Structures are given as C-alpha cells and as structure tokens.
Amino acid sequence: MTELGRVVGDDGQGRATCGPLGGQGVQAMDAAAVDRFDRWIRQEFVERNTELEEAYFSARREIVHDPHLDTIKRMIRTDGAKLIAPIVEDGGMPPGAQERYRLLGAVGFYLASCRRHEVDGPDGAEELSAAWSLANLLGSSLGVVPRFVFAHQSFYNPAVHDAYRTFTSLDDESVFITYNALAALAYRRAAHALRSVPPMGVSNPMATYLLEDARAALDDVMEFQRTLGRTLDVDRFFFNVRPYFKPYRVGGTEYRGANAGDFSAINELDVLLGLCDPRDPFYQGILAEKRPYLPPEDQARLRGVVTAESLLEAFLREAAAGPVTPRLRENAEHFLALCRAHGTASSFHHHKLVKPFLEEPARDAPEERRKGITASGPPLEVVMAWLARLSDLRAARDLPGSARLALERLRNLIADGARTDG
C-alpha cells in the first residue's frame, strides 16, 4: 500500500502500520483513504475546476453565477468533503513530517478551490468542518499555517506520470507554477552558497567559488523570470490562476493567500548580503508575517541567518583593517556584482511581473472585486507600497535605511587599496 507515494505496511485491515507520531503512539492514518482523496484531487477536481475556469474566461469575469456552474461548484465542495471525512474519522496521522506537509497541501487545494468558487460561506460550513479540522491538526503538528501555500504546489507536490497536482489543466497555471518554482530553486542555490561563506572568511579563495556560484544562480533567477513574463498570459493569470491564491478561512480564522515568494532563500540573501537589516522594524514585520507561511525547514534557516554578521559588514571590517589583498579585492568585486544582481532580479519582478500581471489588470476589475484582489489581504495600493519599498531596499536605492552608503564605502576602500598597490 502507498501513502502519498511512500510504501508502508498494512495491518490486514487496510490501515497503514507506521511508527508513532512524535513518540505518542498515535495511530497511523488510513493510507487508502488518503490515496482516494489524492486521486480525486488529480482527476475530477481538476476537470471541474477547468470547466468552471473556461466559463469564467469566456465571460471575461472572475466568477460567473448560473445554475449549471453553481451545481459544479457545490459538487467540488461535497465530493471533497466526502473523501476527507473518512481520513478524519480514522483518527490517525501520517508519521513523517513530509507526509503531513503534503497532506496539508492536498487539503489546502480543496479549501482554496472552495474559496475561489465562493462556496465556503456559512451554508458550506458543515461540509467544510472536517477539512478545517484536519488542516488545523496538520498545521499545528508542523508549526505552519493550516492552509495551502506555494511550497505545496512546487516542492512538496509529488508527480505521478510526469504530472504534479494542479487546480486546473490550463497551460498558464503550469507555466506559473514551473517558472516560479525554478526561480525559487535558483534562489535556494544562491542562499546555500552564501551560507557557507561566513565560516571561512570573505578573503578565502574558496569563497570566490561560492560568490561566483551565487551570482550564476541569480542569473538563472533572471532567466526564469524573463521566461515567465514572456510566456504567461496576463488575462489567463488574472482571471484563472490568481483567484486560487486568495486568503481563505480555516474554521474561524482567515489566513492570507499563497505567495510564490514564501521561501526563506530570498530573505537569507537580503540579510546575508546586508541589503536588508533584520533590526529594521519594516523588515522585521516582513519576516514575522512570512515565517508561519514558510515550510518547516525554511523557518529554521530564517531563524539561523538573522543574527549572523552580513557579508557587507565582514568585507567592510576586513578592508578597513587593511591591507586590501588581491583576493579580498577580487571577492569584494564578486560580492558587489552579486548585490547588483539581487537588486536587478527584485526590480524586474516588481516592474515586469507584479505590476503588469496584477496592478494593471486590477484597474479594470469591477469595484466590488478590487477589495480582495491581492493574496495578502490588505488593499492593493498598500501591498504595492510594501513591495516597492522591499524592492528599493534590495536594489540599495538612495532612501533611508538602505545599504547604499555602506556599499559605496566598500567600493571606495577597494578602489583606494588598488591605487595603493599601484
């Protein structure tokens, strides 16, 4: 028997026989019930969502209400509820953290679809109660929000016959997931390289390789972002992909929507490079809001980086102490180029992806639809202001709190050292 792609034992009554959760002797979850729910998510769920999205797109509206379509919406809610109920009634729990996280994502797909099609109101509370209970239990066990996040679409989404879970069979959804996930992987590669630099010192010859590797990874980020901008259709994204990322309720609490940037790597780069200060109240707010939406291992990485000395501080300290050796100068030049690459990627994302794919089409949305246009919850203009400030910090623009002056100081120290050598 398989449990979300992992082979487990069987007790002869169709129940998986895995070890206890957290040593508490919790009964393992009924793997057959989980598999039935997973198959539904990959098949009928996708077919019904796609039928609804095609009808919405033909009408050029975010959602359409008519008897036939409303019946399909309720079928999604009812059929999902029937499949989740035996999982909850079984009383078990997947023993491994990754299995629990993947199951949370599958339940989140269902709840996000109910929100998207607006069948999660008071009249659907009874049917949704089992899904809410399961999501809360899984989220609590993992220390994450009890909802679907982008990690569930990208890194914790096992492919079956080459296909990972999606809401629809629309090409634009796959384009959006694939290139955002590839960019996130490239950011992870850059962050992994930079995490290894502080212990060895910024003038170490091995650090040269790591700085070059991080720069190559950010070049990949830019390439994936450019491909996404060229390939993704603005209208398809706005009408048929974006609505699945909205905030939704789990029991009595509403959680903000999924965000393709909900990984620690980009924030690790912010802090390790010294472009964003974890003591800055604005940036602290960004990290605090984001942390519970990160995968568990990303939460640990983020906690580990915020107290470390930044590479900018390390370069300034060593360059000021002198002498500016050839290796220190070379690594500092790599570092400065890396900072520029990080700022360029952030600016591209803000001006070439966020603005044209969200801000611009939102202007044409009906007034009653503009209030909930963002995944973050607050009004669009508030979210855009946050994102603009974050992009400016990453690009070290001339504004209060940016690293611009410190970077200029490093450039001057390196230049002075070069003249002294000459």
UniProtKB/TrEMBL annotation:
InterPro entries in alphabetical order: PrnB, Trp/Indoleamine_2_3_dOase-like
GO molecular function, one term: metal ion binding
One example of a Gene Ontology biological process annotation: L-tryptophan catabolic process to kynurenine
Pfam families for this protein: PrnB (PF08933)
Segments for region (Disordered): 1-22
Name of protein: DUF1864 domain-containing protein
Naturally occurring in which organism (per UniProt): Actinomadura craniellae
